[in-house]
Design a protein that fits this description.
Length: about 150
């Protein structure tokens, strides 16, 4: 039996982590790796110690901000990066696997953290009804390659 690639393994893990999300609108998972080793994981949801949206507001989720986004949630890639930094991990040269392409704010964080490649499953622009994937465009413009990953089960 052929061995699965690390890309496939890490993307499957990101997809599985999405099921941990407490968001009632979208579940997103992320895995940060370096040299075929996992540095950190994350999924979208409110900061630890606040509210779990699916428990507190199971029907509608948390309040929306002025742009219609969750008022409490951290994005999966933000959680993965923050946990890595909190624990002293070096992110320079890391690769990010995420189930939804990064928004522009996350793309700026990814770039600033020194992450050098991003693989994603689905388009944030398609999910939000936007004309373009601004985060993907930002990363590509500044030399961080992004690839939409075709996850074969």
């Amino acid at each position: 039996m052929p061995k699965k690639s690390f890309d496939t393994i890490f993307m499957h893990l990101a997809a599985d982590l999405a099921f941990r999300s407490h968001c009632v609108k979208a579940q997103v998972g992320a895995v940060l790796t370096k040299d075929t080793r996992i540095i950190s994981i994350g999924y979208n949801g409110p900061p630890a110690g606040t509210h779990n949206c699916d428990e507190e507001w199971p029907e509608q989720g948390c309040e929306r901000d002025a742009r219609g986004s969750c008022s409490l949630a951290l994005h999966a890639e933000q959680n993965a990066i923050l946990y890595a930094v909190k624990n002293g991990a070096k992110l320079e040269g890391a690769t990010l696997y995420v189930t939804l392409s990064p928004c522009l704010a996350c793309a700026r964080l990814i770039f600033s953290a020194g992450i050098t490649a991003v693989f994603y499953l689905k388009s944030y622009a398609a999910y939000k009804g936007l004309a373009a994937d601004e985060g993907v465009n930002f990363l590509n413009k500044f030399g961080v390659p992004t690839s939409q990953y075709n996850l074969l089960e």
